[in-house]
């Protein structure tokens, strides 16, 4: 039997091309490569496994780590130690767009809280100063109602600003 022909005597590529409605010229992908891992042009997609940078030794009995292979184990006396690969620089995790937006939003919360606290303090200061400069304060010794409203509003804005300032710096709880 001729190596380039199948059992019926036809060229092997013609029959396969006719079965798939492909012209014998071969407009489909190169059929000579049967296994993609054998092709040097194919590159694997994804992250390669991490390369161990340092080797440590661990006792299989008590799991104590040792910097060098010097049996027996100093904790339990086991005569053998197992080799453990330690990766010094683990690959960084890819962060999606949503996670980056949440991180940026979390970073902006303390700044907004600081600005609100400054504005609240300024309103309290202005309300107190403006209220004490009036004739009614001098005569009665009490702040007028408009100055009280400014002071109360300033304290409220100051409290909200302080909450945002310190709430934005807390770490979120880990899910259980």
Kindly summarize this structure in a few lines.
It is built from 4 helices and 3 strands.
Structure description:
With 176 residues, the protein is mainly alpha-helical. It has four helices and three strands. The chain has helices at residues 12-19, 97-132, 135-140, 145-167; strands at residues 54-58, 65-66, 82-86. The protein has a three-stranded antiparallel sheet with strand order 2-1-3, with no helix packed on it. Helix 2 packs antiparallel against helix 4. The two termini are 68 Å apart.
The main pleated sheet reads as: 3 strands, antiparallel
Strand order of the largest sheet: 2-1-3
Taken in chain order, the helices and strands follow as HEEEHHH
Pick out the low-confidence regions. Answer: none
Number of strands: 3
Shape: elongated
Q: Report how far the terminal alpha carbons are from each other.
A: 68 Å
Count the helices. How many?
A: 4
Beta-strand content estimate: 5-15%
Helix content: 40-55%
Mean pLDDT: 69
Round the Cα radius of gyration to an integer and report it: 38 Å
Structural class: mainly alpha
Transmembrane segments: 107-129, 149-167
Region (Disordered): 1-48
Keywords: Membrane, Transmembrane, Transmembrane helix
Biased composition (Basic and acidic residues): 1-10
């Amino acid at each position: 039997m001729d190596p380039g022909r199948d059992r019926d005597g036809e060229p092997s590529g013609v029959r396969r091309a006719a079965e798939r409605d492909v012209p014998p010229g071969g407009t489909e992908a190169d059929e000579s490569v049967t296994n993609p891992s054998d092709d040097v042009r194919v590159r694997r997609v994804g992250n390669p496994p991490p390369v161990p940078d340092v080797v440590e030794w661990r006792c299989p009995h008590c799991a104590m780590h040792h910097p060098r292979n010097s049996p027996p184990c100093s904790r339990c006396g086991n005569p053998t130690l197992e080799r453990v690969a330690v990766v010094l620089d683990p690959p960084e995790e890819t962060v999606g767009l949503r996670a980056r937006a949440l991180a940026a939003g979390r970073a902006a919360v303390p700044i907004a809280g600081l600005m609100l606290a400054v504005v609240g303090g300024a309103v309290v200061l202005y309300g107190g100063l403006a209220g004490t400069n009036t004739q009614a304060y001098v005569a009665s010794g009490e702040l007028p109602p408009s100055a009280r409203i400014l002071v109360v509003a300033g304290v409220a804005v100051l409290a909200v600003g302080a909450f945002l300032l310190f709430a934005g710096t807390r770490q979120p709880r880990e899910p259980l």
